[in-house]
Every structure is written in C-alpha cells, then in structure tokens.
Amino acid sequence: MEPLSADEIRRSFVNSSKSQIKAMTLPSRFTELPWESLDYLGWRDPKAPNRGYLVVRREAGVTGIAVNTQASGAARRGAGLCDLCNTAHHLTDVALFAARRAGTAGRAGNTVGTYICADLACSLYVRGLRELDVPQGETAGPEVRAERLATRLEGFVNRVLA
Ligand SMILES: [Zn+2]
Asked: For residue 72, which of 5, 51, 55, 79 sits 20 to 30 Å off, Cα-Cα?
C-alpha cells in the first residue's frame, strides 16, 4: 500500500471518539514500516494492549477501524484461523477482536466480532515474511492470498460501516 501519514491515520477512524483517537499510540518506527508488503496497516496499541487498529486504503479513501480484544488468562491449546488472511496459528496467536460499528449502531453498543492474527500482521503472513510454527493448510501463493485478504478486509470494513 502507499504509505500513510500520521495525520491521514488519525483522520481515518470511523468507529472511535475524538478522545480515543487522541489517546491512540501510532506504531513504533512508523516511517520504517514495510509499506510495499502491507494490504492494511495493523498494530496493537503499545500503551493499551487490548486495543488494536486496522487502517486500509479503499476507493472511497482511507478507513481506520479500532478493535478491542479481551486478554484471556486461561491457557488455550489447539490452533485457530484468522478470518481475514486464513493463516493458522496457535490459539494464543489469534484473537477475537470486536469492532464497534460506525455511527448510531455503534453508539447503541453494536459490534462486529472477527478472529484476526493477534499481532494484526496478516499481510506479512500471507507473503511468508513472518515465521509460523503451525502447519498451514493453505496452498495458494502470496498474490492469491493477498487478493483474498483484500476481499475479506473489504467485507469486514463494510460490516463495520453498515
Ligand atoms: Zn490474519
């Protein structure tokens, strides 16, 4: 994706209050991110570990979505799939994130829940740029997987905006 500026990111959020955006911590080493390998910019908030952010360039402009996850203290065994990139992970490396819906639905407390790679690094997994220690059932190549990721991401964004 084309690099985003800090301003573009802060302006992009569709499901956050002004105070939440003000409290947001941008990714560390922001200018050194591997933009050419990203389908979306995703990161966990270093100062609020249960919060995460996904920012995607779409035809309509830049759309940012804030998500929350509940850290579970219980040890979990087995594997799980990311709903966006279909990467298989140990259950501790995939998280159920809730995104508040945009607008009145969100203010009424409605959320969209999705399992996503816990580090929000789907783009790196589909390209084989981040190591995995779980056998993968997926056999498609990086380009096909990146296309599918973009399609599922658009579906997720539309559910939040709907
Ligand atoms: Zn993923």
From this structure: 55
**Which protein residues have their CB within 5 A of the ion that is ligand 1?**
82, 84-85, 87, 117, 122
Which residue type is seen at 123? Answer: S
Q: Which DSSP symbol is given to 36?
A: G
Distance CA 157, CA 62 (A): 11
In a domain, 1, yes or no: no
Measured distance CA(162)–CA(158) in Å, rounded: 6
In a domain, 147, yes or no: yes
Q: In this predicted structure, what is the pLDDT of residue 73?
A: 58
Distance, CA 116 to ligand 1 centroid (Å)? 5
Using CA atoms, how far residue 46 sits from 23, 28, 51, 97, in Å, is 11, 8, 9, 16
Give the count of domains, the chain: 1
- Going from the Cα of 44 to the center of ligand 1, the distance in angstroms, rounded, reads 13
**98 C-alpha to center of ligand 1: Å?**
15
pLDDT along the chain (162 residues), means of 10: 94 96 90 94 95 95 96 71 96 94 95 96 96 90 97 97 94
Residue 88 CA, ligand 1 centroid: distance in Å: 8
